[in-house]
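Ticket reopened. Same input as before:
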Amino acid sequence: MRRALPILAVLAALLIAIALVNPHFLEPAGFLAFLKRAAPLVILAAGQYFVIVSGEFDLSVGSLVTAEVVIAARLIDGDESATWPVLALLVVTGLLVGLVNGVVTTRLRVPSFIVTLGMLLILSGAVFLWTGGAPRGALSDGFRVFGRGGLGPVPWSVLILLVLGATAILLMRADFGRTLMAVGDNERAAALSGVRVHRVKIFAFMLSGLAAAVAAILLGGFAGVSAQVGQGLEFSAITAVVLGGVALGGGRGSVPAAMAGAVTLEALFTLLNLYGISGALEFTVQGVIIIAAVSAAAVRLPRKSTPRTGDAHAAS
Amino acid sequence: MPRPKAAIAVLAALVIAGCTTDKPATTQSAAPATSSQDSGTGAQSEFFVQADFDAQLAMRSKTPQGPADKPWEQAIDPEMIDTSRYKKDGPYHLCFSNAAVDNPWRQVGWKTMQAEVGLHEEIGKFTALDAEGKDDKQISDIAELQAKECDALIVSPNTTATLTPAVTAACAKVPVIVFDRGVETDCPVTFIKPIGGYAFGADAAEFLTEKVPAGGKVLALRILPGVDVLETRWSAAKAVFDDSRLQVVGVEFTDGDAAKTKSIVSDYIQRHGTIDGVWMDAGATAVAAIEAFEDAGLPVPPINGEDQQDFLQKWKDAGLTAVAPTYPTYQWRTPIIAALRILRGEEVPGEWNLPQPKVTSENLQTYLKPDMPPLHYALCGCEDLPGFPEDWGGKKG
Amino acid sequence: MDLLTRARGPARGGLAAHLREPTQVLFLALLGLVAAGWVLVALDGGQFLTLESVVGIQQRSAALGIVAVGQTLVILAGSLDLSVAYLISLASLVAAEIMAGQDGNIGPAVAAVLAVSALVGLVNGLVITRLQVHAFIATLGVALIIRGALDHLYDGPAGRVPESFQVLGYSRIGPVPVSALLWAGVAVLAWLLLSRTRLGYRIYAVGGDEEVARLSGIRTGRVVVLAHVLCSVCAGVAGLLLAARLGAGAPTVGTDGGYDLESIAAVVLGGTALAGGKGGVAGTVGGVLLLAVLDSIFNQLEVNSFVKDVVRGVVIVVAVAVYARRTRGRRA
Amino acid sequence: MLSMRGIGKSFLGVRVLSGVDLAVTAGEVHAVVGENGAGKSTLMKIVCGVHPPDEGTIELDGRPVRFGHPLEARRSGIAIIYQEFNLLPERTVAENVFLGREPVRRGLVDRAAMEEATARLLGELGEDAFGPRDVVKRLPVAQQQIVEIVKALSVDARLVVMDEPTAALAEHEVESLYRLIGRLRERGVAVLYISHRLREVFDLADRVTVLKDGSRVTTLPIGEVTPAELIRLMVGRDLGAYFPPRSARAGEVRLRLRAAGNRKLRDIDLDLRAGEIVGIAGLQGSGRSELARAIFGAEPFTTGEMTPARPRSVREGVALGIGLVTEDRKAEGLALRQSVRDNVLLVARAVGAGNRAGVRDLLERVRLAPVRRDQEVRYLSGGNQQKVVLVKWLTMAPRVLLFDEPTRGIDVGAKAAVHDLMRELADDGMAIMMISSELPELIGMSDRVVVLRDGRVAGTLPAGASEEAVMRLAAGEAA
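Engineering reply: fixed in the latest deploy. New output:
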């Protein structure tokens, strides 16, 4: 939790800055709308966190989100009764994609960067091959309720975010989460403690796939079918996680911080827009802030020492 | 780095317009740009050419020549060109360099073109290469197609300026037919396009000036800057709005992303309490814009979309005040027809301006086809083609 | 626990033992693919290795090839560069704007492109080594910065490249296009660099084991920075080539081509380890050619682009999996 | 030529060297001997500029020097052959030998010159099994060691430091090395030679310096000392050194090996009994750690019998009630950035069993209670880190616990605590196997000492055996 503090401070500052321009923002309705918008990215960041903390990458989530939305539209095709089966199928698809990513990474020893890059290509190709190039069919209202509707004034997506966020935090406190951290920190020590390293990593990839499926359900629900829905989300998610102080390479950082990183990123977009920074220059600002945030963290926490060469005082 | 004045002007235009650009995440949008003009539309686009604008607006009221039931064979004010020097005997080998098949509009068009090819027995072979949206690949594709002994080459350019050298080179070898986007050379035998972007933009803007009470707040949504066919749509709309008493409260870029569109519209509703009209340069995200009003519990103001089924369906179901100017996908049939005419030595228009109808509440019922997929374009002119509707993703009604 | 033991296992005997280098596997695969392409296209009633398709393969792979050669350098040094795609766009615009259609401006334009790209590489390298930011994030950040600048300044193709410079993009000598010669030149230079210069040796050393390199007196940070500068210069050269082909600069030419991820994919396909220290330019050239031949076959058979994506994804993952099986692990 | 005075060095508060003097003259082979932990390697690293000394001065040719980087030491003509290989496995022999100072001709690396020089050096070593163009990863370990030596020799060093250079060499290779060192001496090069193998010391050295517990005991011309005396100088220590008393009773056999073997081990017969501490002795490379790993299931036995069962994986080992306290705590024992609690519970969580509720008691038992349980392990002292590893296994209440160098790199007080704990555990009925390079510790703790040599059991000695006896068995010769 202590490491989450800097990002929370940045987030607070951003939220205050937004509120100064748009007082409506801090009202419940305004803030809920902001959270609703942030929910998919926050969920994706939580999923990506599991993979990154285990020392891997998942570049496939963006195209997985697109694929899921397109699959849902084609299968539901406006038929209300198909909603729930298709929702279940989406979740299963997400888990399955994660499973494949994980198995290829661990068993075939292909770097996850490459595995998930390949998966990115395969998913985007396969799904449009199946639909003939553009999304077909339509989502049912029942499907869209998760992204559009709410329970009273509280959007479903915010509720889903809260539930998943809490689950992620609990998961990281549970045996799985603790062993996952240990694997990311020192894979060898974990293996020599009886941790099934492969299985733990595969599970992390599956969680990322699951997060992508949920994000797809929320994004598809929010705005309907689109072929661009997932574009670039993998980089946003990784950026969010890193912004939350989670180190690429594994073993460091907390899931609330990763999610806070995603909210911060979203708040940053909002703020840049509100202050009328040219939409284009927004990317420049974003790039500078990301590098600055990460380098600040790196300067505070020196790079992980490589145990390979041993350490001085262990030798005679 | 020396920067031409034009670029500075563009830069100024962009800054003034307070544009946003593509990123996946949803955002709140920029505050309405401050502007020297009351209309809030910013500076006119560098793409705006007054003469073309006037010509296109004039074309809208002209009666096209050709069979009325086949708009893809009609032409407005054709200046016929002699093609006897290309005359040869069949069977023909037609080649097609396609910019991309990466959106529903191109998807529908590509299906339609393939079906059109199937109609003609004299086409012995049809070779098509997809450039996947890459200029560089399209340049190579065009070069490669020239080697395939094509009798005619059809090009749908990915971008205007950058494909010009490749097309110029091809003109020397085969008759070239360009459609959709143009190139900066006269060498193709014919350039096929609907009336154009000015007409599209003006149709929608005129509708809004008519339906939205004076002083009403209009939000203009654009996909992205810098694309010629889209720039003309906006510049025409801008001209119309500047002439009207409507107040354009914002010009925003959506990247064609539904989630972003919805967020932008929600933000504007939040900020202004209400929006009295929505202008869009393309219809793909019109439904998302409409939903933003619905989700806010507000009546949907006058809006324009395009001839996509989901919009037409929404229009009907919600009883909207709407209009749908079109950029008809039936133009994908015309290049095949043109190619065959050229190879038979028949005259074709040098600039083939196809009619560009708009969907209104009067003719909505004709274009609404509930059995077609939501992203299908109604003006595909494909209903009489073999394989319809299944090949276009529809269900047999 | 195969994690602990398999890494020490000996390489398999038989044919596999003779094919220990990924490059050999790759070029065999390339030959096989050309043969398969020949058969498939012939069955389809076409002819595969026509002059035009050979020229096409070269034209198509030249830009990617040049970027991938640069990418090889940084990956060998244990880094990677995600900013090349935007840099290519930037380079094409800088070139076309300065040339402005005038022959006399070609020299300054080329110089400016090289300077700008070297500067970007310098920033990449310094952020990674001095600020200790992971290369992934550092170059992604720099990519965003360039993107912002591009989107801010340009909204479409700009500038004009004079006819004389377009020679680079269109002319050919016999069956070999000038662009392919440029690519070959860059590849040979990179090969020379890696196999014949101290910097090259040090790139391998730093990527192979930074600690060993440091203990051998190598200034590791400087090597990483130089590798990034060279990689960015390669991207700049690719931008020049694309400007020559397009006749103008285009703010989306780099991203449309997907040069960032695709160049990494080509390098890895060429047998260079993503972790660094192992591989080389020959493999990358093979990787790029393999992708180009694959493309060419698909083009001839008019397979749609979605199938291509699927096949490309599978090929990359399978190739790396094969290399991973074939190579003995490093000393544990 | 080189003279060091009053050298002192501490790591994280652990004093490794204090007040060491050492002088080397040109053309001299100077052996440095001492037990593990005596400070030899640290001293060598100070010579070579890897670590700066905390105190003391180094003079080279009468001028004071201070090396901030290995490169500076090398420029002054000091080369080192590390114990751990510093080679790039993917590169050729020649490329490794000349790494960082490749010869250049007309701007390009002169490969021919490089390979020729490497070949010449290999020739001088009498090495013809491989050439300059071979890729290092394809060479056997012994040949990699030769590359390491050639690398150091190639700099035309005036002082070559060799840290256990023969640990991985076969007999004939050792002789080549002798010849080579002889040639160096002729050229006036000084050699600092560190070895456990006394025969080598007596064969090669002109003078010998004995280190013990970070201090210099003495420096003598080799002619003035006998092997027996040298061993006594190295190992002799205060008889007051305390080890917990042995208990007499050994209980049932907990683990039995018969003719067990794998790639590194052959025909191992061994019984571990409840209540007993069995010490495993042997030189580096004799298979000590491999034995522990094989029993544990990390690098399983492939032949022979193990009762109750032969584990094929770590998890099977854990299920059999076997635990392994690894040699390299930081690389293999701990997740350094995780908390004490997370490390302690790692095994229990991994296999979904174990006594988690009792962790507080266990921490108290090993006297780690004052340490905050959410403290990251990397901030703990070596002794406390080792206790964390120990508690990690105690949560599983193992029947057999294997300790590989349990007190390496921890200070004296903590050592005693670990020793007490080990005996306590044995008295509670656990079977314990202990590997240690520190003979006094091994002998002081063990109820039996099993000596390994070349992957086989060379012999078993009873409690209280002399260090000389152990050394003799381990070295396979009368030392």
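The longest strand of chain A covers residues 150-151. Residues 300-316 of chain A have pLDDT under 50 and may be disordered. Please confirm and we'll close it.
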